[in-house]
Amino acid sequence: MIVIGIDLSGPSNHKDTVLVVFEVIENQLKFVKCRRHINDEEILKEVAAQSQVNEVVIGIDAPLSYEDGGGDRESDRAIRKYIVDIGMKPGSIMAPTFNRMVYLTLRGIKLTREIEAEISQYPVSIVEVHPGAVIGSRLSPKEMDYVLTYKQDLEMRKVLLKWFEQQQLVGIPKTAADENHTIDACAAALGAWHWADPAFSPKWRYSAKPPLHPYDFCC
Asked: How much is the pTM?
């Protein structure tokens, strides 16, 4: 199994988009590559190339649907409650149609439909992932500061690299700590792995409700 984690940014902000590729080997997620500053065409080409190697599972940090009429989806309300219950802040969950989110939502919807259309002949699965919740849900209460501060704190990102090793993500280069987008992409891969691999299970999951909400949401 190939697992791809994508920290997606808005369609005009390729520099903050990061894609990481891992391969499942002996119950570990082995780092293969990281691609930064990547556009939609490059993402499609990478997914197509990996799908010819093995089954591909993609975890994407972006809304992959929106609520008709605007505002929160049921899944947004559910995961917001979940992260507050484990000690995280609710502000990281924003409605897909919120001003700061709407272009990211547009890109997420466009990209996933293109993946399905262009790579339909290969086994590719897609899940929406919240990277912060992936991390926070696997930390002990005394470690919760890691997830609350890593986006601003280089030292915390270095700590999380070691923590990823404890979660069986191996071979991630130290340079991954240089920016939070790479940490988020790795966390998206971790969440997608636990969602897809029958040896594991996600910490939280909201099942797809097609046709308007066609993808599971997990952490």
From this structure: 0.96
Strand partners, 29: 24, 169
Please list the residues that pair with 206 across neighbouring strands. Answer: 217
Q: Quote the CA–CA distance of 3 and 32 in Å, as a whole number.
A: 10
**How far, in Å, are 103, 183, 192, 217 from residue 11 at the CA level?**
7, 20, 23, 21
- In angstroms, the CA 21 to CA 47 distance is 9
Q: Are the beta carbons of 21 and 1 closer than 8 angstroms? A: no
Model pLDDT for residues 162-196, shown as the tens digit of each residue = 999 999 999 999 999 999 999 999 999 999 999 99
Do 112 and 125 form a contact (C-beta atoms < 8 A)? no
93: closest CA among 101, 85, 150? Answer: 101
CB 76 within 8 A of CB 22: no
> Measured at the alpha carbon of residue 128, what is the angle toward residues 166 and 203, in degrees to the nearest 5?
45
Q: What is the DSSP letter of 210?
A: T
CB 157 within 8 A of CB 177: yes
The SS3 assignment for 214 reads coil
Give alpha helix (H) positions in the chain.
40-51, 74-85, 102-118, 131-136, 145-149, 154-166, 180-196
Q: Domain boundaries in the chain?
A: 2-218
Q: How far apart are CA 87 and CA 29, in angstroms?
A: 27
